[in-house]
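Issue: ligand-bound run for myristic acid - logging full I/O for the record.

Environment: standard queue, default settings, no custom constraints.

Inputs:
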Amino acid sequence: TFNGTWKVIRNENYEKFMEEMGINMVKRKLAAHDNLKITIEQNGDTFHVKEGSNFRTLEIDFTMGVNFDYSLADGTELSGTWTLEGDVLKGNFKRKDNGKQLLTTRIVQGDELIQSYNYEGVDAKRIFKRC
Ligand code: MYR
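Outputs:
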């Protein structure tokens, strides 16, 4: 279900979320239009994700339930896990700089992939369509 290439088509409350994350206004404006594209390849418990945006391209491998490190485009470092619960990918990450939790989920609904984010009580979504 998650497999394929997805491009972001809209955001919900993402600027507020980034503000809560401490990202300055100039970066927020750029990040809201980052043309994020992700390619997901799932093989059982392991995932290979290619990420491309106006900021960078990178590739990550992770296994369900196994801790890994990930850096945001602004350099903020996270560490945590993805787990699959039913049809929902649940990400439980922590910022390394302040120990605060960042929760995220991915779900495929129809022809959309919806990624939700929660940080310090602020929720946001990014909605992707297949390329
Ligand atoms: C992946 O599966 O794409 C790699 C791991 C993603 C980790 C968590 C993503 C949280 C992204 C938060 C964006 C915050 C921007 C302020």
